[in-house]
């Protein structure tokens, strides 16, 4: 009996020591847990951040965060709020219906958003009191589809953008779709009838809705003047807007029956109006070309007096696309985003003389800018190792505000990303990106996939790219090629492929392939190629030109160009770039060589497409699949039900990655 307390005490001490050892060992185990490769199911874990807006007092940023419910196979978007000092992150909504377009009331007391929650058939504006309480619906729009809105400076009115909707009256027999427009198809929207989009004025107190614009035209991008008396907007009011892209900036008094005034007269495209702080000028971007169609173009930063006149072209000499203009607080300069050779950086342009100063650069991609009351900037930024997060752009550089991606990144070993430059057969210099697997053996030749971007007027940037990271995680070196036609290298570099598809781009892809082989990066016997949209189109062109690729995956592509006139949404491009088929059929036939010479293709090729794609319809993939199947070349066709040009169903996104990897593994490993 006398020894029991001693024995118990000794046992306690032993247990405590054992527990301590377990904690230490557990901690060491946790710290040494190896990182794993990315896998397709990680799609369920990746969140998407967007649409940030700073509160009037500058203390908070409201934004959207989209997450996937794997059980329901559904993506849902909620509202979050981040403190400017970076210390607090608060989820504001939890509705399964989703919320979007957060906007602060001018007094900062309310946060508004759009949602069709609680069984509503269409989106309405909701108000959430910052002091607490459940959100309440503000508008009660009976007809039409609300697509955009903006508060007046005094908070008493809201400018709404509402589209008319087709007749949805209940009937056992659906009504025929009657088409009488030149351009009658658009991805996601479907067949285009005579639906119009107009501006309306909503009185917050009385809930009265007044019409601002009328007619057969469409309006967008409303921006209130600082004094709240006028609204600038964008509209194409040419005789037949379906036949051109000639949008202009207009201004109208913020009252019913007001007469609108045209501010810009450029026969190209003008868009994105932003009032100067004193309300005397408007900044905007316009196309470089004055032609009424501009596939291969880039935006120029402009400033014009609020009553019109000759604009100042601040960035014309830069020869790079400029977007997202924001005035400085004193109105003497503009911040803007510049796309330049695999990056998007922030620059400042002096209004008086157009002098440009780079203010935020590096191997990264800035997607969104917002001005803080202090004069600092809010940026949405990503880099090859980090999906998009919010950052404060201050004098000392970037200060990270949100950390939503940390849980996603924690267990992953991602590919390293580097730039490289290749030479094409005709001497062109091409900028590219290379993804090396995290576990790659230094100096070893790797099975390599050329994964080609779409557009074509786009570019591969030093940003987070889930598709290339996923392929690299499967053990492949992956290359992105900024072929001619891409932006970020100047207008001439982009325009050179006009009406000459599948020529110089293929030379650039093959030049990048040669570089990878000659430098001991790629195993020449294990080369693959793939891409989506124009990347799928170029995959078809490339495998019809060169047989060195052992496997290919062509997503949402086409090859029989001569069969696409009137089938997809690009009627203006056909008419303006290639001409009518009955006048220039030889050109259409020449551009259709992957299909018409399909017997040259020896590469086993996988074709994928969305069933409801009106951008590059499924017929393009079906034709190529049928051709290769008829010829006996290994092939398969995957059609995703109910999907448009972009695959948005999370389960289908995972399926696509799994099929990519399985297909390439079959032929490259």
UniProtKB/TrEMBL annotation:
Pfam families, per database record: PD40, Peptidase_S9
Residue stretches making up the Peptidase S9 prolyl oligopeptidase catalytic domain: 463-669
GO biological process annotation, one example: proteolysis
Lineage top rank: taxon: Bacteria
Coiled coil: none
Keywords: Acetylation, Hydrolase, Protease, Serine protease, Signal
Annotated protein name in UniProt: Acyl-peptide hydrolase
